[in-house]
Amino acid sequence: MLRRLFRNPVLRRILAALATLLGVAVFVFIMLRAIPGNQITAGLGTEAAALTPAQQQALEAYYGLDQPLFVQFFSWLGNIFTGNLGFSSRAQQSVAELTAQSLPVTLELAIFSIVLALVIGIPLGMLSASRPDSPRDAFGQVVGLAGLSIPAFLLATTLLAWLASSFGFNPNGQGYAYFFDNPWLNLQQMLLPSIVLGFGIAAPIMRTTRTAVLEIRSNDFIRTARAKGVPPRRLQVKHVLGNALVPIVTMTGLQFGYLLGGAVVVEQIFSLPGIGRQVLLGIQQKEYALVQSTVLVIALAFVLVNLLTDVLYRMIDPRVRAA
Amino acid sequence: MNRGNRATRGALAAVGVAAAVALTITGCTAPKPAPSETGAAGGALVVGVTSDPDTLFPWKATQFQAVNVLQNLYGTLTEFDADLEVVPGLAESWDVSEDGLTVTLHLREGVTYADGSTFGSEDVKFSLEAIKNEATAAVSRTSLASVAAVEAPDEHTVVLTLTSPDAALPANLAVINMAILSADDTEAALNTTPNGTGPFVLDDRKASQSLTLAKNDAYWGDAAKLDTVEFRVIPDESSIVSAMQSGNVQLAVFDDPLVAQTAASGTVTVEETPQLSYHALQLNARRGDLADVNVRLAIQCAIDRQEVLDTAALGEGEVTGPITSPAYRSDASARPCPERDLDKAADYLDEAGKSAGVTIKTIVSQGEYATSVNEAQNLKAQLAEANITLEIEVLESGAFVDRWIAADFDAAVALNGGRPDPDGMYGRYFTSTGNLNQVAGYSSPELDALFAEGKQSADPEERKDIYEQVSDHLEDNAAWIWLFTSYTYTAAASNVQGFTPMVNGSLQYLRTTTVN
């Protein structure tokens, strides 16, 4: 009975996901405490040297650092199950509230970036593959290489400095506007970071597309289709691209998952209050619960994206459905 | 006896005196001074900052940004003016008894908190006692070490009984960690809703995005001229520059000379201000070869401070001795080796019996401030020529702080904060009972005596002389190697007027600032 239950693929996936999340929780918990310093020294800096033992004790009790490690871990984990993700003394808000504000920012940025990356990457990849080793292939490859090798911070800072000083265009200097408060400003603020991230992600998508298209095109069924007189455009889109989609979706899902972890550098430069910055600030301030809970949320998002990618496979490729 | 008023700040002396008289009169007759109409310029100022305050509770705030925000929200018994002279704050005046053991503070009348409640002597008693209480974990507790008792005989008088005379007390009361809180408030409440007596009140806060202050119309001094000040968090300094160029941000303070250079263009002007904080090679004179004064002096003689400044910080700063506050500033050349002298360094090593050379390990923080590693590398190169091997251990800033706190180092490349009063600045480091003496790694009976004398003396000239001796003693014994002070760079759009940057980095003159 139990064995049959474990053979259920859906249940097995869920169990595996839970095990992954627990692993992440333990790992982050240990890593955070392995970093030198704690919330007291993060807040006071070298002034912490001037604390008397009694003051030190008072602060440890205040931050809950006087508890044994396993108590800290299990009280945090227990709280998670009741929906209490912890409290940030820096922001004076609960982690759940903070995440509810920062996750949509990151999600919006991730969606725009991925869409942009697909819009650039797929046509470019197909263009490259349409005539390998030709000038148009070289063009595609050069753009792809540029996307891979120009660091995001360089592109971001240059773009921002140039637009701000030459055109006075700097929506990101105006303080972040949430989409539902001011959609027009919000979209402007998302423009530059999406371009920077999208350009970087377009490169692997372009390369994956190119390789996959070349591989599919060498298959017999393409030759057959061509022999049967399928018009070239239809052949390219339906037969070639349709079959090349699986590796492209894999790459897209992977990149999207990373984006959900927060593009810290781009969020910093464009002052976007996303989830990457939330984690970074948490680490700087040694706000353990904040970091642990936020990383868990990110891990959960990653797991969900993977699951979604799997579902997409099944929709795209009947062979996966059969398996 | 001190008497004067806030209104003198930043104004010409003559204007200041007139204003002081005028305000003293209104202070006596009207319980609530009406906000001045002269500063009706109004406007909304946006200040670009790289981080959010990490706390809004003044007694525990040490982070630069937190201190800067809280200074505009809370009041202290005394304050500093633009020259770091102590001037009256919530205490309108104070008398010190003949024996120096009783300080009577005469509190300002008609002062209210942001929530409308009235400020009185009970609040002062409550605040000072709470700061002294270790359970509060207030960071400036030791500044009240000489205060034995706080009494509030009437609504507007507070009497401090001291264990020994304390000339540094007025300056110690001026820092924001000594903010006077209402006796009815709690830390938990103030963490979200500041309730102070400052020129501004908290208007709005979006954690890690922005914090907005609004003018406090009930402020006891000249009302702030701005309607609002927004501290907008832009984590990247070069993005702040972009935001200034596009006109979204009007004021920002930078540490990095390179960033400041890029900011100075078009309508943005940049002004540099020397700082009280100082770069030093801290030596732990209680460990290994450094216990020998001759080894420490050899290090002093082997280092050209100007070269460290030039290579690590683009020459943006000034070579310094121990004391950096303008009123007590050390003569940077008053030391056994005013200039680099390798022969003398060799002589000192000989005297220490270390002609073959010594090896010193130093800790260096990475990421806390820009110049640290470059300083260490230049020091290493210079010392190598004097047969002194400097082994550099570069640490992430959290790890550096841990080692520094535990005094677990031979030497440390450090950027330490300075204070206006030399006793507040070095008493805690270099007196044998100071709470940072373990970290300082040096003390002597002479220094103990000098610091005690400095606290006893109420005569400014005499104190100057005493702290010159302190400074000489520190340099003669090469307790540490003081290197240089750097600048901060205040970038302001052309429509910003009336802001005075201060050497302690304070943004208190936001209250006199206008935007057109």
Quick structural gist:
With 323 residues, chain A is mostly helical. Chain A has helices at 2-7, 9-34, 39-44, 53-63, 69-81, 95-130, 135-149, 152-167, 183-217, 220-227, 232-260, 264-269, 275-285, 288-316, 318-322; strands at residues 87-88, 93-94. Chain B is built from 16 helices and 19 strands.
Mean pLDDT across residues of chain A:
90
Classification by helices and strands of chain B:
alpha+beta
Strand order of the largest sheet of chain A: 1-2
Helicity range of the residues of chain B? 25-40%
Cα-to-Cα separation, first versus last residue of chain B: 40 Å
Tally of discrete structural domains of chain B: 3
CA-based gyration radius of chain B = 24 Å
Q: Biggest β-sheet of chain A: count, sense, barrel?
A: 2 strands, antiparallel
What would you note in describing this structure?
The complex is a heterodimer of chains A (323) and B (516). Chain A is an all-alpha fold and 323 residues long. Helices cover 78% and strands 1% of the residues of chain A. Chain A is built from 15 helices and two strands. In chain A, strand 1 and strand 2 form a beta hairpin. Chain A is globular and about 85 Å long. Chain A starts with a helix and ends with a helix. The relative contact order of chain A is 0.13. Chain B is an alpha+beta fold and 516 residues long. Chain B folds into three domains: 40-73 and 198-274 and 487-516, D-Maltodextrin-Binding Protein, domain 2 (3-Layer(aba) Sandwich), CATH 3.40.190; 74-184, Dipeptide-binding Protein, Domain 1 (Dipeptide-binding Protein, domain 1); 278-485, Dipeptide-binding Protein, Domain 3 (Dipeptide-binding Protein, domain 3). Chain B has 16 helices and 19 strands. In chain B, strands 1, 8, 9, 10, 11, 12, 13, 14, 15, 16 and 17 form an eleven-stranded mixed sheet that branches. In chain B, strand 14 (358-366), helix 11 (372-384) and strand 15 form a beta-alpha-beta unit. Chain B is globular and about 70 Å long. Classes of the chains: A mainly alpha (323), B alpha+beta (516). The interface between A and B is large, with 51 and 56 residues.
